[in-house]
Amino acid sequence: MKTCHRVYFYTLLLCLIGLWMPGSSFAEETKKESDIPSHVLDISKENTFPNSTEDQEIIEPSKLTKELMEEVDMPIENPELIKVLNESSIKPSPVAIGYRGMVYLGRWPINYQSAESNVNWEYQLINKNEMNNVDGEDVQKMSYYQQEEKEIQGALTSKISDPEQIKTMMLLKASENTKLPLSYKTVIGHNTKLPNSYNIPVQKHGILDAYAPAVNEKGQVTFGEVYIELKGSKKTIQVKNVTKQGIGAWIPVQDHLSFSFKVN
């Protein structure tokens, strides 16, 4: 009889473990999805300025370009360089025995390696709402109301060659790392408002500040001189005189605001 009780107990324990494990996994997924603080709100539906989503065109390497890139000892990630390689029409003659040649494509940013992607949820103050209830007799409510249109601009933090190409690579990597909607320019329109309300007690003065968040992206860019080398009927990519340079950028989070409410 005791043996039956033990079997029943262990069976029940295993069932409970089976039920608990998926719940733990779900909790971890929920935690990942809720990395945005509770005081940061998505205003994409309420924003009176229709920001265009900065979807970066993903340049897929052609079959030949992919084969050539696989033979290079460093990743080639610059979309503009991949586009040029895709459009290259240099084809060695199949009967060009002993032929050798080098075609110089220029000096390019080859790739960007991210070191860190940190979000500053209070990157730029863009609005301040105030309400005075010092002489009031009842609790007052205040809500966010955008008093004037604000444009938030991102930028690289230092000078570097081919800045637009590097900004594109950094934006792609920061978006991948943070899973946030990023853009180098976002606008908060005049008259944008939210229904959320904040209580201001009697004999108090309330202040509601709204901030535009942004990602501080930091990493390293690899530069190199790119050649197409021709050997008989074979074509390969050569990258020479490789250098590296550290770079940072501020990239605004699109259609999101961080709120700070205080009374005094």
From TrEMBL:
InterPro entries: YfkD (IPR025548). Residues 1-27 form the signal peptide. Keywords: Signal. This is YfkD family protein.
